[in-house]
Amino acid sequence: MMSSSNAATPKIPIFDLSRKNTNPSSDSWIEDCKNVKKALEEYGYFIAQYDDVSGELDRQVFDVMEELFDLPLEIKTRNTSDLVFYGYVGQLPHAPLHESMGIPEVTTSEAVQSFTNLMWQSGNNRFRLLTLSLCSESILCYAKLVSELEQTVDKMVFTSYGAQRHYQSHISSTTYLLRTIKYSPPDSDNGNSNNVGTNVHTDKGFLAILHQNQVNGLEIQLRNGEWLSVDVPPASFVVMAGDAYQAWSNGRIFAAKHQVIMKGDRPRYCLAFFSFNYGITCIPEELVDAEHPQQFKPFDNFGLAQFYLSGTTDMTESTAKAYCGVSA
């Protein structure tokens, strides 16, 4: 199941998490679970191969992405939300190459249909209906498949920690956000040498699953402070832990800082699939003992995200420690 990337030291794990390779009744399941957990503890992320997303679906989704970001700005800014990171984000002085839109509850047909209706409200009726159908079907199919990957990783983590009894309630509280992101290449010809696609941050949910066209740019900071440029193999996914998983795991899982730095002359399109939980999340008692005293209090995942957006703490540091950490 496991191999290593070709990057220089350290070698980031690559796991094949396709459905055919993740059977809980297989002889390798427990060992595979331990390896996934170890990767999230040591690096905060790993690379997943997942051939359940076919090459054809992959092509369709990125075609939709290009068409979406070619829409006029006044249409894209219809994508609004009370939560900043759920709606349109763009035209940022500190990250001028970044533009993104969010689709909350993306594994439901109603949410995807609502988003596509919002983006393609006008135009030739026949063409519009065809566009809506293709966009909705490809995005919804993609989201459902990636949600299965996310739930597989959750099951492996919960199993490895001996916390399987909490898995079902966790999944029933989970909601998914898909952010479609475009990073433009730096425009040095016009005197703009700012190549920042996304500033340094940690994610605020449980998992983020990132999928890109064949343009790199993601950089992740390791536990030792070293920054690593991530070379993502074709048709692969980056699975990254967020602040909520750090808190849930009583500090065992590492929420890695990361950023996007653009190079070259090609745009980078990225699908960022985030998992958040509704309600109050408690740290499982299985993860608290004499060697691991409780580091975090029960927390509200969306409260954690709002706390981050309030600017109360340094945005590059762990929001979980500031929001729900146990005082010494």
Gist?
The protein is an alpha+beta fold and 328 residues long. Helices cover 33% and strands 24% of the residues. The protein has 9 helices and 15 strands.
List keywords for this structure.
Jelly Rolls, single chain, 4-stranded antiparallel beta sheet, 9-stranded mixed beta sheet, disordered N terminus, 328 residues, alpha+beta, 15 strands
Describe this structure in words.
This protein has a single domain, classed as Jelly Rolls (Sandwich), CATH 2.60.120.330. The chain contains 9 helices and 15 strands. The chain has helices spanning 29-42, 55-69, 73-76, 109-119, 125-160, 167-172, 243-248, 301-309, 319-324; strands at 2-4, 13-16, 45-49, 89-92, 95-104, 174-183, 196-201, 207-212, 218-221, 227-229, 236-241, 258-261, 268-277, 280-281, 299-300. The strands form 3 sheets. The chain has a 9-stranded mixed β-sheet with strand order 1-2-3-11-8-13-6-5-4. A 4-stranded antiparallel β-sheet has the order 7-12-9-10, with no helix packed on it. The chain has a two-stranded antiparallel ribbon with strand order 14-15. β1 (2-4) and β2 (13-16) form a beta hairpin. α1 crosses α5 (125-160), α2 (55-69) packs across α5 (125-160) and α4 (109-119) crosses α5 (125-160). The longest helix has 36 residues, at 125-160. The termini are far apart.
